[in-house]
Amino acid sequence: MLQLSPSNARNAISIEEKFSLLSEHWAPRVVAEMNDYQFKIVRLQGDFIWHTHADSDEAFFVVEGELRIDFREGSVRLRQGELYVVAKGVEHKPYAEHEVRLMLIEPRGVLNTGEALGERTARNDVWI
């Protein structure tokens, strides 16, 4: 079942336009749903926190910029147009030296900080 936000029910979604509406960092916003999965956009800059998602993989697609995802044993660098999937249960920490525009693809209800709740935990399931 494909679900778009009510305002986009019959229109293509402009990711560029959606990013223009989003100014804060580390605050994912939903742009579409497919089955039980959400497509979220987010602006990142600086260091995030170590966290895991015990029950879900998490896909990172870099729309613009360069992202480093740190693991306890190494890291992966993603550039514009690249995709990486962090497997469920793997501890990771995103880092962006300069601002990155990113799309996350993950099941509905997944918190940005996983089990590591705190000041970086964003409100969940917020549409833009």
Q: Radius of gyration in whole Å, from Cα?
A: 14 Å
Number of strands: 8
> Ranges with pLDDT <50 over ≥5 residues?
none
Proportion of residues in helical segments = under 10%
What does this structure look like?
Helix content is 5%, strand content 46%. The chain contains one helix and eight strands. Strand 5 (66-71) and strand 6 (74-79) form a beta hairpin. The chain has 128 residues and is mainly β. Strands 1, 2, 3, 4, 5, 6, 7 and 8 form an eight-stranded antiparallel beta sheet that branches. The protein has one helix at residues 15-20, and strands at residues 2-4, 29-34, 37-47, 58-64, 66-71, 74-79, 83-86, 92-107.
From the structure above, extract its key features.
128 residues; mainly beta; 8-stranded antiparallel sheet; 8 strands; globular
Write a brief structural summary.
With 128 residues, the protein is mainly beta. It has 1 helix and 8 strands.
